[in-house]
DNA sequence: GGAAACAGCGCG
DNA sequence: AAAGCGCGCTGTTTCC
């Protein structure tokens, strides 16, 4: 009954709203349960962390603020963690688009809440700097973060939720999204334990020793020389696609672009060193020594996560490329001495989410307790696991050609409910409609110009070229909405997983602080904590004696997330789980 | 001379 | 062997 526990609020759900007041002070408004008295107080910047910690200990309220990204980092720095929050800016963007909200005009009018906070901009609230001015009195418009506007937005949002067609689902989504905001700030504060020596070793092995500034590494220089010799062009730039393409043509290599997948089909002696050069160039520019200098300090890599940064609800990152760390650098992700990494990823998250959403019994059965793709092979639908994978991805992404185009029709016969769900989402998108995830995040409506252009092109007298272009545009949008419902619901599952895990880990006992683990700061060097998240994968950094318990917590949380989203469904979400000192390359 | 777009490639 | 969805980041080219 995990679901009921979250949906029907406990008897006295205090909310504590944080906002900027006058004179650089912060106002705290405690919204109590009915019948109790509303209370508020304000405090100076240097008193804030202590005041928040005291209220958290006494009432454990849901903290309401403009953005976790603006308020939470300095609380964490002061050693304060919070259990739950309501992130108005993230929630605003969900509610104003959601099809489940009946009346969103008020929210849409408050468009100052639509702007995502620029993570590079220093936080503009709480008056924690000495130079803070009293913004409240000097501005005319409503400003997120000021206490009056914060309370007004909370009221708008509560009305929108209470009046929605499916308030319980929306409440789950909002709680999960807000938990994500806490987690993102905590992940950044804790940092990813990073072994600079190992990273340097991988770079040196691949590229040669670190060159002096401005120079290219040895092995890139020699690979480039091989390419130029083979092309008979001693000066050609390998970093300029147009120039390189012309040089390739002059050497008789018939390609339409310089991308690796097109090059690798050709026999020419320039191809092998060129592909080698491209690999090295990529590693150097994206995650080379300059990246190490910029992003890793005191054994921690601290990327910037952007919760809700993708339309589907997935996280994005901004700076540091947290979600694109190449697998070959994974071994640099390494536990502090005396600590361990507990890594877990969900097998075939998206297909399983689709199976659960559509309650497709055959598809659920194919994945029950094992690899879903192997299950499809065993059911006799295809002959190889690779075929099953390509077919399922084609179903999720709207593939029509090649292997996936051949397998999808067979999947449609075997898994009719699952396929009907994604096919329906695609049809809605092609018509210009909106689709919605399991918990209520809706896809953005198409631009007005798009709808208009489609209507014009669909007139019988429209030029054939225009009609063709219009059909292609419709299909593009259909593939987007087809994938949106699945990718978005998978993101909701992952948030629920992490939210449950985070609360379990917070109840772990404290251990003695370790010298190297202390690089994670006062909060995260005394017990197991989340260190990494990547769509369907988490890594917990744990004192060795807590690693087994952390693994159990990860599994329990995955089960809890499944029950929370799909109560009563037989769907399962098996994990690949490993306890190691060093992350595996795979 | 700086912003925007593109190419290419890393991740799920 | 690539395709079909969603991203970020770098270096280069193009545009204003």
TrEMBL record:
Catalytic activity: DNA(n) + a 2'-deoxyribonucleoside 5'-triphosphate = DNA(n+1) + diphosphate
EC category: transferase
Stretches the record annotates as Disordered: 455-476
Domain of life where this protein originates: Bacteria
Gene3D superfamilies associated with the record: 3.30.70.370, 5' to 3' exonuclease, C-terminal subdomain
Gene Ontology biological-process annotations: DNA-templated DNA replication; double-strand break repair
Keyword Nucleus: no
Pfam family, one: DNA_pol_A
InterPro entries in the record: DNA-dir_DNA_pol_A_palm_dom, DNA/RNA_pol_sf, DNA_polymerase_A
GO molecular function: DNA binding; DNA-directed DNA polymerase activity; exonuclease activity
Compositionally biased tracts (Basic and acidic residues): 466-476
Keywords: DNA replication, Exonuclease, Hydrolase, Nuclease
Membrane-spanning segments: none
Domain DNA-directed DNA polymerase family A palm: 326-546
Matches recorded under CDD domains: DNA_pol_A (cd06444)
EC number(s) from the headed UniProt entry: 2.7.7.7
PANTHER family in alphabetical order: DNA POLYMERASE I, DNA POLYMERASE NU
Protein name per its UniProtKB record: DNA-directed DNA polymerase
Native organism: Brachybacterium ginsengisoli
